[in-house]
Design brief:
The complex is a heterodimer of chains A (299) and B (673). With 299 residues, chain A is an alpha/beta fold. Chain A folds into two domains: 201 residues, P-loop containing nucleotide triphosphate hydrolases (Rossmann fold, 3-Layer(aba) Sandwich); 83 residues, Alpha-Beta Plaits (2-Layer Sandwich). Chain A is 34% helix and 29% strand. Chain A contains eleven helices and 14 strands. Chain A has a six-stranded mixed β-sheet with strand order 6-7-8-3-9-10, with helices on both faces. A four-stranded antiparallel β-sheet of chain A has the order 2-1-4-5. Chain A has a four-stranded antiparallel β-sheet with strand order 12-13-11-14, with helices on both faces. Chain B is of the alpha+beta class. Chain B has five domains: 278 residues, no CATH class; 78 residues; 109 residues, no CATH class; 102 residues, no CATH class; 75 residues, no CATH class. In chain B, the strands form three sheets. A five-stranded antiparallel β-sheet of chain B has the order 9-8-11-12-10. In chain B, helix 1 packs across helix 6. Classes of the chains: A alpha/beta (299), B alpha+beta (673).
Chain lengths: 299, 673
């Protein structure tokens, strides 16, 4: 488990991370979502022990991460612009990491690299941006650490590769203790990989929740009911958002979809249906409740 | 990660990823080896050409080749900076910082690994190279214990310099976040103390204090820079490197490396990783760094404009400080922020720096500490040394007594010496040097105080108006003893005595009694010579003592070659008022050059600033002028407008000679007209 307790970090006058407290449980794919400058990378760099928090503490399996090899050996960090030695090949690079991460699984690395068709003996500097990202993810997976921190690593990967990586993640999570933490500004890229989402904005955490809970707890309803029912609906249900276009009422309601629809049907609407919510809509609803104009925050 | 196996593994892995610097270092040492071999061959070739040309000279050159030298010092200095930059450059890239700092290695271990890699590359290759060079010398049959000793000194000096420079470069890298700024930082560390600060006080004191004398007192600054320590440790001024002479710098280089290494280590641990890409790592240090650089550099710029201007010096100085302060402060802020718009920022700091600068300027101009009026109290003084360039130049201290330290003026003579200093100072500080036209000379007073301090003061005085008190102290044996070897010379070492007329040198065959009488008489009259008389009188001739060169000691008999005996000469001026000396010389057969027999004067050229050159060939005129001519080589004190200079062309013993002469203008005009 990774725990962040009241973590702060400022760069000059800019408060990059503002008193963040967050818990990342084992066995989930954690997504850190936020716009550019939201503090995702700073948070991840602090979690990776690159930056020292000005206050607060970051614990990896109970060990403070700052300048602590024991804690640092529990994760592998892939930065948004990963460094590769000039002229190194994937084979040499893997050998380098084997020195630092004794649990590095060289066999699996060879297997995976072959699977996704990356040349083992070609210089990494001749790789495309996407190939480099694939390589760093594979190295991260094979490092054998319980945690993998990826900063914008999935940006630029094609959907097929994203799915492939996702399946490798699942495999790893089934076979061993493995918790990837992925930071991205792209909601759609995280949607099909992550189990848990933390939304960052201006250095703070707006929300942190399991994706499934988010989806289950919110229901989007479209129904046709006269206007005089509006007040009654608002009093009876936890309505986050309500829009009326003539007789068509569209609302986002907190609660189980079936129960909400059953209650609305008791009002004898002309039409009533629960519509699936996209992750984007969930975030918009949740954050608007918190007073944020989320549409301008996420893609 | 701290276990031995892991450390070795990480060390090897790190080395592997700095292959380029390793190869460059190998290449540099191969070049070193080639150069050594070539020089060695040249030395061998030299001895083959001229076997008799002293085998010890060959040994000297060979020793020179194997001993610590400036080239090796520079090599170690530069290689250290390069390797430190290569191994620690990752700190300046966010990409690499993220990569390395996320690895499960403690910061302190990482520092040790990088340090060890950088140092070991140089030390191992340097040791191997010098080892091969030593082997070459031994295999060639010229090796001995001395060569081995020098080679070891060479290695230790190179490693010491390398470490000092390496640690400085690491410190520069740690304190900055950008390679260019790091290079500038290294340059500042290397030059700040021994150049920027070292010459600031002398530059200002020389400008504003009329009595200032530049001394070596600022040499302590040389201990605060790897470059100056390297220079002092390895530069030999053409002599063989001497361990005793350089020992303090040898110790200093290791202490410097250790101290800077500890500072670099502590800062490395504290260095924030986010500094990568910025100019400076520790923002809190920016203000003191800026102020420490702005103040001296602004002062230098002010002083430069002051010295460049022909008038309104003070206005240019004030403007220069303002302009320099603004520019340096702005430039530094532009570098710190990587933004040219920062030129006008941090105005309060600029103001503080400028106020300090003006305080310094004002302090020097007003002479707050009464520098120019300083005369120590008699009871504070242990010894006074008086140095007058002119007088000492022509009564020079003998080779024969070169080992002897000067005694200075002590005891009862201290008070008169201080009195003389006071009178000369009164003149020196009251004269308007720009307006008053006077013929001046310079005298330096060195006060050795009882508290161990040494103070120097330089006074300028009018040669036509020398204070009586100064004349008095000059006309003492206490003063003259330090400037004339005849007082203390072992007379038994005098091989012969002769005299020079300017035209020829003639030996005198004197008995010991005659020699003693001549020397005693000369010294009696020389002791009584005052400064006033020194300027007023003319040197008629010089008498000289010839000493046998002392036999060299501690020379390996195997290489020692008995050469023909060397002689050293010393000359002593005989002034026109030295009647007794002249009378004795006359008795022993001396003639002045005007009376030199067999001298046939052909022509005389006299140079006059106003009338140009006058060529005289008329025999009658030449004969009339001869008694008034003085050898100008003996009479350098005749430099005012009352004297004319010229060249005499004469024939003696069928040889044509040219002689520089001088003549009093009034004498010349009287006869010529």
């Amino acid at each position: 488990m990774i725990e962040l307790k009241n973590v702060n970090k400022a760069f000059g006058d800019v408060q990059a991370v503002d008193n963040i407290s967050l818990t990342i449980k084992d066995g989930v794919v954690m997504g850190l979502l936020g716009t550019n400058g939201a503090g995702k990378s700073t948070l991840l760099r602090m979690m990776a022990g690159v930056l020292k928090p000005e206050s607060g503490v970051i614990l990896v399996d109970g060990n403070p991460v700052w300048d602590n090899p024991e804690a640092k050996s529990q994760f592998f960090y892939i930065s948004d612009d990963q460094f590769y030695f000039p002229n190194a090949t994937p084979k040499e690079f893997a050998s380098f990491y084997k020195t630092y991460f004794p649990a590095f699984d060289s066999e699996r690395f060879c297997l995976l690299i072959e699977k996704i068709d990356l040349p083992m003996d070609r210089k990494i500097r001749t790789f495309s941006k996407g190939m480099k990202k694939q390589l760093s993810i594979l190295i991260g997976i094979c490092a054998g650490t319980p945690y993998l921190f990826c900063d914008e690593t999935f940006d630029g990967l094609d959907p097929v590769m994203r799915q492939a990586i996702k399946s490798i993640f699942i495999q790893e999570m089934e076979n061993r203790r493995f918790t990837p933490v992925i930071a991205s500004h792209n909601l759609r890229e995280l949607e099909d990989i992550c189990d848990h989402i933390g939304l960052l904005h201006k250095g703070g955490v707006l929300l942190s929740q399991d994706l499934i809970d988010l989806k289950c707890n919110l229901t989007k309803i479209q129904c046709v009911l006269p206007e005089e029912y509006d007040t009654r609906i608002q009093n009876a249900l936890l309505v986050l958002k309500m829009q009326r276009h003539g007789k068509l009422l569209t609302m986002t309601v907190r609660g189980e979809s079936e129960k909400v629809v059953a209650w609305l049907n008791s009002l004898n609407p002309v039409y009533c249906e629960a519509v699936p919510l996209s992750l984007e809509e969930i975030f918009i609803s949740e954050t608007e409740v918190a007073g944020y104009d989320i549409k301008s925050l996420i893609c | 990660m701290t276990s031995r196996v892991s450390f070795v593994k990480l060390y090897k892995e790190t080395l592997k990823h700095h292959l380029a610097s390793l190869l460059i270092t190998v290449f540099v040492f191969i070049v070193h080896l080639i150069t050594f071999f070539m020089n060695f061959q040249n030395i061998l070739e030299y001895t083959a050409i001229s076997y008799t040309a002293q085998y010890d000279y060959f040994i000297e050159r060979l020793t020179e080749l194997c001993s610590p030298n400036f080239n090796n010092g520079i090599l170690a200095l530069l290689m250290a900076a390069y390797l430190a930059f290569d191994y620690f450059k990752y700190m300046h890239s966010r990409k690499e910082t993220d990569f390395y700092d996320s690895l499960p290695v403690r910061k302190r271990d990482w520092f040790k690994i990088l340090l060890l890699c950088g140092i070991s590359v140089f030390v191992i290759l340097c040791t191997v190279t010098l080892g091969i060079e030593l082997a070459i010398v031994f295999v060639s049959g010229y090796g001995n214990f001395t060569i081995l000793q020098y080679m070891l000194w060479n290695l230790l000096c190179m490693i010491g310099i390398f470490l000092a420079s390496f640690m400085t470069a690491v410190l520069a890298m740690t304190m900055t976040g950008h390679p260019i700024v790091a290079i500038m930082g290294y340059a500042v560390f290397a030059s700040y103390m021994p150049i920027i600060l070292r010459y600031l006080y002398p530059a200002f004191a020389d400008t504003f204090f009329t009595t200032y004398v530049e001394t070596e007192t600022g040499n302590v600054m040389n201990f605060f820079s790897p470059a100056s320590i390297a220079y002092k440790l390895t530069y030999t001024w053409g002599r063989i490197w001497d361990a005793t002479e350089h020992m303090k710098y040898f110790i200093a280089v290791w202490i410097f490396a250790a101290v800077v290494g500890v500072i670099a280590y502590l800062l490395f641990l504290k260095r924030p990783s986010e500094a990568a890409g910025r100019a400076m790592s520790f923002e809190k240090a920016n203000a003191p760094i800026r102020v420490l650089l702005v103040i001296p550099l602004a002062l230098y710029i002010g002083l430069f404009l002051h010295s460049m201007s022909a008038f309104a010096h003070d206005a240019w100085l004030i403007f220069g400080v303002l302009f320099g302060g603004f520019i340096i402060h702005g430039l530094m802020e532009c570098i710190f922020q990587f933004d040219v718009r920062a030129l006008f920022s941090k105005k309060k700091q600029l103001l503080v720096s400028l106020l300090i600068c003006y305080g310094v300027v004002f302090g020097f101009q007003m002479d707050f500490f009464n520098y120019d009026e300083y005369i120590p109290k008699a009871d504070e003084v242990k010894t006074v040394y008086i140095t007058s360039g002119n007088m000492q130049q022509y009564t020079g201290y003998g080779y024969n007594n070169s080992e002897k330290e000067t005694d200075g003026i002590t005891g009862e003579y201290i008070e008169p010496a201080l009195e003389a200093a006071k009178d000369i100072m009164a003149f020196s500080t009251s004269v308007n040097w720009d307006a008053d036209v006077v013929y001046t000379d310079v005298v330096i007073f060195q006060y050795e105080l009882k508290n161990g301090q040494t103070k120097y003061r330089r006074y300028q005085y009018n040669v036509n108006d020398i204070p009586e008190s100064f004349d008095k102290i000059i006309a003492t044996k206490e003063y003259k003893n330090d400037i004339c070897s005849l007082y203390t010379v072992d007379r038994s070492k005098i091989n012969s005595i002769g005299y020079s007329t300017g035209v020829e040198y003639i030996n005198l065959n004197l008995t010991n009694e005659q020699m003693n009488l001549l020397i005693d008489t000369y010294l009696e009259e020389y002791t009584a010579l005052t400064y006033t008389r020194y300027y007023e009188e003319s040197v008629i001739l010089q008498f000289g003592c010839e000493y046998s060169q002392p036999k060299a000691e501690n020379v390996d008999e195997k290489f020692y070659v008995e050469e023909a005996t060397y002689y050293l000469d010393e000359y002593f001026p005989v002034y026109s008022s030295f009647k007794n000396t002249l009378s004795l010389l006359n008795e022993y057969g001396t003639t002045t050059f005007q009376e030199t027999e067999n001298l046939k004067v052909n022509s005389l050229e006299i140079y006059d600033k106003e009338y140009g050159t006058t060529m005289i060939t008329t025999p009658e005129l030449l004969d009339a002028l001869m008694p008034y001519l003085l050898v100008s080589e003996f009479n350098h004190n005749k430099y005012d407008n009352n004297w004319l200079y010229g060249t005499l062309r004469a024939t003696t013993d069928n040889k044509e000679i040219y002689l520089d002469i001088c003549i009093k203008q009034s004498d010349f005009e009287n006869i010529y007209k």
